[in-house]
Write a structure and sequence with these properties.
Elements lengths: L1 H10 L11 E2 L8 E6 L4 E8 L2 E9 L20 E8 L6 H4 L3 E4 L4 H5 L8 E3 L14 E2 L2 H7 L8 E5 L1 E2 L22 E3 L16 E3 L1 E3 L2 E3 L26 H22 L10 H8 L3 H14 L1 E15 L2 E12 L2 E13 L5 E10 L1
Parallel strand pairs: 1-10, 2-9, 7-8
Antiparallel strand pairs: 2-3, 3-4, 5-6, 5-9, 6-7, 11-12, 13-14, 15-16, 16-17, 17-18
Length: about 375
């Protein structure tokens, strides 16, 4: 009864506020491979590490829920915004016209969603049995079936998928090309061009497109620009990086250092690891009392053998009002070796200190 009352009280606590129309910002170190859905431009970007920084290698037309905005409750037909991970491939027989040939599930609601009282489930990345058009999903993300067939082998459990209203500017790499520089915060309508390594002075490229230059009322297209078969046109200007993206340079190192210290305590199996958690937020975000979490983790200290974390795999992603650090871990149990991806969700507590509100582990 006491445990029930404790959980009931934590569920009634006010949730941290989050801004509308969230713009995703990519911090470093980012994962080597992940996806970002830009709801405003109806695009899905395939992000990969190139030259020590994340770059958009491919883009796909991508539709979302029938109702605009961030998902709040079950049945509102909105697509959630935040940092998610692919959890599994949907193996049951699908309604082909609704979901196409392939679908993977995302971990909605994530711990931050639950802390904010969001409800619902079954958010997938899938395709359609017909060309995608309009906003026709029930809250999922959908791309064309010929495209999902091309990338289904890359949609593995543990792959991050960021969903945002906008994506702040990043270099776009076409196949067999160099990086395009990103430029003006409010680029004009543009045409697509070759992903050349260098652009004429005063020009700025936006995901494979180049700004037009006005002169005495005449619009001039850059001479010598060639169309590229591997770069699709973008119909919307790139979103300028908002002011709060500056937290990357301040908070990202803080969160990474906390994650490194957490890893040290986890590998050493010390009680000091519990200081990294927000006990009250954990109970609401994870649907588990923190005392139960402590008992479960102490049991893992005893039962998991040869526990190791690949520190080189540690990365950080910025969500709407929170951070996510993830890494690859492995350990041995009586039934054999286990390997998976663990993600820690960090949010500031009442003192302004980042603490863990929830975590997920996805077997690989």
């Amino acid at each position: 009864m006491l445990r029930f009352l404790f959980l009931l009280l934590t569920l009634l606590l006010p949730a941290p506020a989050v801004a509308d129309d969230w713009t995703a910002c990519i911090a470093q170190p980012a994962p080597d491979f992940f996806y970002v859905a830009d709801k405003g431009r109806k695009l899905l970007f395939q992000m990969e590490e190139r030259g020590g920084q994340p770059a958009a290698m491919r883009q796909f037309g991508c539709i979302h829920g029938r109702v605009e905005g961030d998902k709040q409750k079950e049945g509102d037909l909105k697509t959630p915004e935040g940092v998610y991970f692919i959890t599994r491939k949907i193996t049951q027989k699908l309604d082909f016209m609704e979901y196409g040939p392939h679908a993977v599930s995302l971990n909605y609601p994530n711990p931050a969603d639950r802390l904010r009282g969001k409800t619902g489930s079954g958010i997938w990345l899938h395709s359609k049995g017909q060309p995608i058009a309009g906003l026709t999903t029930r809250g999922c993300l959908a791309i064309d079936q010929h495209e999902i067939r091309e990338i289904v082998h890359q949609l593995k459990p543990g792959t991050p998928v960021i969903v945002a209203e906008h994506l702040a500017g990043l270099p776009f790499y076409g196949r067999d090309s160099n990086a395009l520089p990103i430029g003006a915060p409010e680029p004009a309508a543009v045409e697509k061009t070759s992903p050349a390594a260098e652009l004429p002075q005063g020009k700025t490229a936006v995901f494979g497109k180049i700004n037009k230059e006005k002169n005495d009322g005449q619009t001039k297209q850059d001479e010598g620009a060639q169309l590229s078969a591997c770069v699709h046109a973008v119909d919307f200007p790139i979103a300028p990086a908002p002011a709060y993206c500056d937290v990357q340079t301040v908070d990202a190192p803080k969160v990474l250092e906390l994650a490194r210290r957490w890893i040290e305590h986890r590998e050493a199996r010390t009680e000091g690891i519990f200081e990294f958690y927000d006990a009250t937020a954990w109970a609401k975000a994870s649907r588990e009392s923190f005392s139960r979490k402590q008992k479960r983790l102490r049991g893992q200290f005893q039962n998991q053998k040869d526990f190791t974390i690949d520190r080189k795999s540690l990365n950080v992603l910025y969500g709407p009002g929170y951070w996510v650090t993830s890494f690859t871990e492995s350990y041995r149990l009586k039934d054999g070796q286990h390997r998976g991806r663990r993600a820690l969700y960090w949010m500031k507590d009442t003192t302004g200190t980042y603490r863990i509100i929830g975590e997920i582990r996805i077997a690989q």
